[in-house]
Amino acid sequence: LGYVLLPPFLQRQSWVYRQMRAAGLKPGALSPQVLLTHLARVYGNIFSFFIGHHQVVVLSDFHTVREALVQQAEVFSDRPRLPLVSLITKEKGIVFAHYGPVWRQQRKFSHATLRHFGLGKLSLEPKIIEEFNYVKEEMQEHGGAPFNPFPIVNNAISNIICSLCLGQRFDYTNSEFKKMLHFMSRGLEISLNSQVLLVNICSWLYYLPFGPFKELRQIEKDITTFLKKIIKDHRESLDGEHPQDFIDMYLLHMEEEKKNNSKSSFNEDYLFYILGDLFIAGTDTTTNSLLWCLLYMALHPDVQEKVHEEIQRVIGRDRAPSLTDKVQMPYTEATIMEVQRLTVVVPLSIPHMTSEETVLQGYAIPKGTVVVPNLWAIHRDPAIWEKPEDFCPSRFLDDQGQLIKKEIFIPFGIGKRVCMGEQLAKMELFLMFVSLMQSFTFSLPEDSKQPILTGRFGLTLAPHPFNIIASKR
Ligand code: HEM
Question: Which domain of life is it from (predicted)?
Fold first, then answer.
């Protein structure tokens, strides 16, 4: 059954439970990343357990993760074949696709196409700045009253993916778009935190005509209708000379491939799953990172003041921020990195799977083992980070106040499966954070309780809902 599934009275007899109590932790209330990190302190940086008949190996320090994902990349880069994931993604797209030639072709094309539309480059800047001008307007409307920043930030970040992929942005009041965003987060929530998880043990449960099973199938249907209609509209208005967005480029590439290779993996069905991946991988992660930044600023006015000073000195009040400012703004960059280190928004990465038997640091690991790189543990490893629980941006700065790039700082993962949107996320985070900090000072309402900083675990680590005050500077 495993420790987690044991009834509480048996859990309390276990050695793990007693060890954790002795360390002052309440095992029942722990998020998975905290529980696994603690187990690593007890059992070592490589330990394993079973979920049903799947063996899971957890890697909890930088050197072990690097040895697996970089030095033995050919063995450790597959994804597990979880029935629920297979039912939803049909094993297509990028995130959950199997390691092999099809994944490689699709990832290479998608990455190159996003770069073509400005990912990591100055040409994308105006779109991001324009989107954040809407955010600032919305925030200003609250006029110093507390508000929940989640919906505004989430809409803006989704709109950047929409501009790149669909060639359009949606107004924040567009009800169809709002519905789609809600469906995506609800779909993820049901898949991770409901009886739907049982589909991994018994796949026919997915077709049950009631409860979360029915709701998930309906969500899948609605998202499919929304995206397929957009793909159809693109096909009908496609101008081969002037592709406007990711979908246009994909459709053109598909036609080209068809001429030379009848077995090409490029088809509309695949395109559909890639779009879904870009939305899911690119929205929640960046939204939560930015929300964490705002929350940490409100909690640390001294750090916020230093960021304000740097913005004032390098950019001033009126000019829009640019990526070219980054080199002159080490403190701001160190602040974003420190928030990312403490909050690791993809704390357990995305699970990997071994594609053949291997040996890792003396341990035999069978083919088909699920491998979890515990990024959360790496970023709080007391052997590497001094006072790892403290919020201290200057740990990323040298004596001259210049930024130190640390090899062990890997919130985007490492190896062949490293985040495909890393450059986009970094540029979004810098431009958006600076743009908001240029206009506002963030604080928490006086009557608010001390926010809980452990986060809510889903596929990403989200802050617990909070209200914030944005005072115009
Ligand atoms: C702060 C924001 C982000 C963080 C912290 C983050 C982090 C990660 C991590 C840890 C992984 C798993 C790496 C592994 O499996 O070893 C990943 C995968 C991925 N991310 Fe991100 N990500 C972010 C934003 C984005 C954005 C904006 C996009 C989209 C444009 C994106 C697209 C992807 C894709 C497609 C994968 C799967 C790569 C593959 O399996 O080959 N991510 N990300």
Answer: Eukaryota
